[in-house]
Write a structure and sequence with these properties.
single chain; alpha+beta; four-stranded antiparallel β-sheet; 9 helices; binds (3R)-3-hydroxy-3-methyl-5-(phosphonooxy)pentanoic acid
Length: 306
């Protein structure tokens, strides 16, 4: 029976999470942690992933493709991932994208990225309330750039290399936080509108400063972005403490990344200081120095496989 495998990267949202759900642009980069999915033909109908039910993003993405391509295969999926789950690094999107790509290789032997994105988005809907599409887009296309719901993902050519990712150790559910922001926006329409405008301005300034690699200014923009996220209620005590720890350790700026409520914090500093800052933060946190701007979805099928 045939097998195929594919991998896709996790992501960090540098600026603009949550506001992107409400139509704003956000800046996002892929990171050097990947999820891999192997799909094996089983000879029995259905898509199976051991330990998970029908409502898993990888299963839904694979099934969507099988149906769309009228590909009558039964598949068993195996997932292995370097991306920590439920902490804002796009783990479920990377798994859904890798699953769609592995399935696609078995059905049509090619990596059509728009089909992969469509299938992975269906998978994401199962666990994320109203996904903007940012996570699945970056996992599919890789690199770094701007995403908005109306224009999709536009890759940009900037040379941002590394940042630190701290895990607060508190898992949370993206859907719950997206709902919380929706309630905030409905109860405080004028305030939310003003916050959206400030958030958009931050993204515009960041695009400018990314071109010139002004890490200090970018760090300050992160602090401003974090303040807006705090105002809409998606920060937490753990995040605030982690942000302060990063700043005290010498980072230019720090903010939550992804949905917040817990999960991960990112910190920006001069590249030659990152190791030292990471070392001091490791006394309390699990810290990754992540490389940014990596390859999107790719085949991991050994060339000798049928
Ligand atoms: O925490 P994550 O990796 O699920 O990121 C979610 C990003 C949000 O902007 C909060 C939601 C979205 O769909 O864009």
């Amino acid at each position: 029976m045939a097998k195929a495998a594919a991998s896709a990267p996790g992501k960090v949202i540098l600026f603009g999470e949550h506001f992107v759900v409400h139509g704003n642009p956000a800046l996002v980069s892929s990171i050097s942690l990947r999820a891999t999915v192997e799909a094996s033909e089983t000879g029995r109908e259905g898509v199976f992933l051991e330990g998970f039910g029908e409502d898993n993003p990888a299963v839904v993405a694979s099934k969507h493709l099988l149906k769309k391509l009228e590909c009558g295969k039964g598949l068993e999926l195996k997932v292995s991932s370097e991306i920590p789950q439920s902490v804002g690094l796009g783990s479920s999107a990377a798994v859904a994208v890798a699953s769609a790509a592995a399935t696609l290789q078995l059905c049509s032997n090619e990596l059509d990225r728009s089909l992969i994105l469509e299938a992975a988005h269906e998978g994401e809907k199962v666990i994320h309330y109203t996904p903007s599409g940012i996570d699945t887009s970056i996992a599919t296309y890789g690199g770094a750039g701007v995403f908005s719901k109306s224009s999709g993902y536009r890759k940009m050519d900037f040379d941002l290399r590394y940042l630190l990712i701290l895990n607060t150790g508190k898992p949370r559910r993206t859907g719950d936080l997206v709902r919380k922001v929706k309630v905030f926006s409905e109860e405080n329409p004028d305030r939310f509108k003003a916050i959206l405008m400030s958030a958009e301005r931050i993204v515009e300034d960041a695009i400018d400063k990314l071109k010139s690699q002004d890490l200090e200014f970018l760090g300050k923009l992160m602090n401003r972005n974090q303040e807006l996220l705090r105002l809409i209620g998606v920060s937490s005590r753990e995040i605030d403490e982690a942000v302060s720890a990063c700043l005290n350790a010498g980072a230019y700026g720090a903010k939550l990344t992804g949905a917040g409520g817990g999960g991960c914090v990112i910190a920006m500093a001069d590249y030659d200081k990152l190791d030292k800052i990471a070392e001091s933060l490791r006394k309390k946190y699990s810290v990754i120095k992540a490389a940014l701007v990596v390859e999107g979805v790719r085949s991991e099928t050994p060339t000798s496989s049928p």
